[in-house]
Amino acid sequence: MSAQEVHAILPLLVLSGGIVVLLLQVSFWRGHLAASITSLITLVAAIFACFQVAGRLTSGIDSIAVTGLLLVDHTALFFCLLLLLAAVAVAILGFNYLQQRCHEGKPFSSYPEEFYILLLLVMLGATTLVCASHFASFFLALELMSLALYPLLGFAVTGDLSPQRDQMQSLESGIKYLLLSALSTAVGLFGIALIYAASGVLDFGGIAAAVAKLHQGPNLLLTGLTLLLIAMAFKLSLVPFHIWTPDVYQGAPTPITALIATVGKGAVVAVLLRFFAQTDLFALPTLTSLLAITAVASMLAGNLLALMQNNIKRLLAYSSIAHIGYLIVAFLIGNSAFGSEAVIYYLVAYVITTLGAFAVVGLIADSAMAQAPGGAGPINDSTSDPFQRDYYRGLLWRSPWLACCLAAMLLSLAGIPLTIGFIGKFYIFAAGVQGQMWMLLAAVVIGSALGLFYYLRLLLTMVQRDPEPASAAVGGVRIATSGQILLLSLTAALLLFGVFPQILINWINAL
Amino acid sequence: MTLLAIIAILFIGGVLAWLSGRLLGRGSRWISLFSLLLATALLGRYWPDFTAGADVGSGGELWWDSLQLTWIPRFGISFFLAVDGLGFLMLALTLLMGLFGLIMTWRDIRFRRGFFYFNYLWILAGVIGVFTAMDLFLFFFFWEVMLIPMLFLIAVWGYEQRIYAAIKFFIFTQASSLLMLIAIVGLVYLHYSNSGQLTFNYRELLSAQISPTAAYWLMLGFFIAFAVKLPALPVHTWLPDAHTQAPTAGSILLAAILLKTGAYGLLRFTLPLFPEASVAFAPVAMTIGALSVIYGAVLAFAQQDMKRLVAYSSVSHMGFVLLGLYALNTIAVQGAIMQMIAHGFSTAALFALVGALQQRLHTRDMAQLGGLWASLPKLSAIALFFAVASLGLPGLGNFIAEFLVLLGSFDSSRWITVVAAIGLVGAALYALLMMQRVFFGESRGLNTDATAKEPVIDLNPRETVALLSLAVALVFLGLRPQPVFDIAAPSVAGSLARAEAARTEQGTVKAPTSIETATRSGWPKSISTGGESL
């Protein structure tokens, strides 16, 4: 490894270093605030490292291959940056979440500090995955991400103030994800084995050569690729591999839901994009038609099932299934500059919007927690459960700014102008027209129309003008300053890139 | 810059109205009134342009005023606002109806007044954007922007079934406009493939060479979006619900302005962009128009709810607009434009009157109303005026409009016109029946109760002046319609020139330039404008 190669993986090194420092810090001196500050510093340092590497890359070299396992280029760095920014938001949300649920004074009853170590581990896995160019690094990164996610999903158990029901659901979500994710990993690993058996290589470049002469050989390679695709579809929760999504999303602590929905999916989309582009799998009609079918199924099933949800987190889970379906439409137009531009734009829109939506939901739940610590309130009443739609009745009149942020997120998810979601949807349409995929476009239109219904129902619940006096217990929602700043910046980004998309387009095209 | 200023004033006025309603608890109405007056005054500055240079438009296709700024160069999208005769008429209608609605419902809104006027002004700003945008992307942008505040207006301040009505309204318009978005993107993509020029500019897309099949499909995408908004027969079902459940001011905006955006879109975009396809589609569209006329009249006749009756009469009247537009000759199209204006005035007034009745008597059910003339003479007299205006009494604007539409379309399609003309009889029936049941006849129990408790108050001077000025305007349009025709003439000629050319050369096959033979494929690589790199 030359010095240049070491420098190229600076963000990964920073994250690893941060993990070690945090481990040592926590073993000697426990402190929630200190741990969160260390993790934030690590994340910010990693972001600066991304810029630093990008600065090095511009001087003549397009990409740096690091030992054949990793390939660092502009696109990978852009994804790293996006995911790290999302992780910053998750860390802030997590701090607010744990603050309400962990007793500060009593030692040895709850350990909120591990949250940040696990978060950094997830980020190390995600950033490595984004840079992977070899199945070894690909598999390691994917597993690192998943393994760190299992305890995070069940993290509500750590908080001694969490209501019993939250702890149960959180455990349930962790175990569900563990079992199904292990299964999908096994399938993916088997796929990799078949690919290796058929081609004798494990790096993406070698597979590209094998794919190029695919029509001569047996279909072992194709089988392997399909199995690998299934493993990725599981992580992306594409229909029919989506069954875990609503339960896991609902049960997990809300910051972790945001993490798994943005970082978990974003990293897989990034590696899928790189894998398909490098090995030119778009040329294989089998794989593209499989993807097209899952995309249509995801758009329709995701939106239809979301129609029936009253729990906001389940609703957002189904809606995220549909959104990945839209994204696949742009993905499918193949190995063109426009295709990856559309995918990246849509992914940015998806990450900002999803993060924002879960942030609002999580912060509202935190504020409800603050008013009734330990779940003292009657939680079965739908108007006092902060994840039920009824809880949002008249929110606009109670706390207008918060409601405006959530409204912006919902409108962006629905793809209404002035928001980044609209430009994302415009990209999807442009991509679909270029690829002349009319069936997929029809599915997008139908899916969007269905989606409007449940987004609007939630939006209109917030402006209901007759708040029942019985639910007056939920007064104005008070959220912490850090949460407010986070929400404002997410909303500002959403509007900025929605009204002046050229800024972001320029960044993406400079990759 | 004047156009941008008008839109900006309304947007900013809306935000100020909300803030002042929220922080001070008062002043939002005056802010709204002031910003609307300011916008109207700015628009008034174009009037001398027209009188001084009336022949400017007839020579070339010059805008009265335009503003073009680059917005998203990646896709050749620019912020392009322009106004011509047609646009000016629509803008004047929008702002005047905005003022009318504001004044008529001055005291109606008690709940969250600031937020109400925020939505009210944003609807108007969005509609003005729709009427002035000459970039298809920008047009679509404003087309959607005007929907959200309308949604809130219905959902928050509406009557009993408001949530259902609001969601239905939104899903109908949004789903159809997604089809239009696909059509817009498809049109731009085909234009780019054939000419190498990536642009959403309306003027440049007019010269797009598209194969007839593709043009037909794209035309349908536009047509469906506009037909839903118009609304035309099979896709009109959102309208009765939305109109009935909306608050009075919302109904006025919906009927007077939002429906007109559909007709405007047909005239401005569908006909000129796809002349051949429009000629081929014209018989279907005219049939839909005529059926809407009849169907709207029949259903209006059958309603119990007064507001629903007026809503169905809108379906009927907008059927005339569709009929006139697709007759594809100057007389009928001029008639359609006149119908847009006259229908805006008369229906807005009728909705305002129903709203006034509802506020006084707390019902719109015609079975409970009756014999109101005795207690409400002024209101009843004015209602009579607008009811007969709506049925097309000669001497008023609506008569001129419907007469011209029928005259023009008789030339194009005799039998369809005959069918549509029957609708006039229906209009007389439902309008007069409404008068009979509500204002004449025996006084029912309900309003005697109401008079017993508190005397029902007739129209106050503010409402009377607002309604009478609309009445005067309708009389003026009926007696001297020529200025409207003069203003609209260049735009109409421009829109129809290509359709008429297409009609004459129908049969001669144009060289197909389909997407398969296109010289380019894929969207262009972005022209990066010096963005930062990572």
UniProtKB/TrEMBL annotation, chain A:
Organism of derivation: Microbulbifer marinus
Chemical reaction(s) catalysed: a quinone + NADH + 5 H(+)(in) = a quinol + NAD(+) + 4 H(+)(out)
Family of this protein: Belongs to the complex I subunit 2 family.
Domain NADH:quinone oxidoreductase/Mrp antiporter transmembrane, first and last residues per copy: 132-450
Primary enzyme class: translocase
EC number: 7.1.1.-
GO terms for cellular component: endomembrane system; plasma membrane
Self-association state and partner proteins as the record states: NDH-1 is composed of 14 different subunits. Subunits NuoA, H, J, K, L, M, N constitute the membrane sector of the complex.
Keywords, sorted A to Z: Cell membrane, Membrane, NAD, Quinone, Translocase, Transmembrane, Transmembrane helix, Transport, Ubiquinone
NCBIfam families: NDH_I_N (TIGR01770)
Compartments in which it is found: Cell membrane; Endomembrane system; Membrane
Keyword Transport assigned: yes
PANTHER family: NADH DEHYDROGENASE
Annotated membrane topology: Multi-pass membrane protein
Function: NDH-1 shuttles electrons from NADH, via FMN and iron-sulfur (Fe-S) centers, to quinones in the respiratory chain. The immediate electron acceptor for the enzyme in this species is believed to be ubiquinone. Couples the redox reaction to proton translocation (for every two electrons transferred, four hydrogen ions are translocated across the cytoplasmic membrane), and thus conserves the redox energy in a proton gradient.
Protein name: NADH-quinone oxidoreductase subunit N
A molecular function GO annotation: NADH dehydrogenase (quinone) (non-electrogenic) activity
InterPro entries listed in its UniProt record: NADH-Q_OxRdtase_suN/2, ND/Mrp_TM
TrEMBL record, chain B:
Region (Disordered): 507-534
Compartments, record wording: Endomembrane system; Membrane
GO annotations of cellular component type: endomembrane system; membrane
Chief place where the protein resides: membrane
Keywords: Membrane, Transmembrane, Transmembrane helix
GO molecular function: NADH dehydrogenase (ubiquinone) activity; NADH dehydrogenase activity; ubiquinone binding
One record GO biological process: ATP synthesis coupled electron transport
Residues annotated as domain NADH:quinone oxidoreductase/Mrp antiporter transmembrane: 133-421
Entry similarity comment: Belongs to the complex I subunit 4 family.
InterPro entries: NADH_Q_OxRdtase_chainM/4 (IPR010227), NADH_UbQ_OxRdtase (IPR003918), ND/Mrp_TM (IPR001750)
Organism: Microbulbifer marinus
Residue spans of biased composition, Polar residues class: 514-534
Bilayer disposition of the protein: Multi-pass membrane protein
TM helices/strands, residue ranges: 6-24, 31-48, 77-103, 115-134, 140-157, 169-190, 210-228, 249-267, 279-302, 309-328, 340-358, 379-401, 413-433
The name this protein goes by in its record: NADH-quinone oxidoreductase subunit M
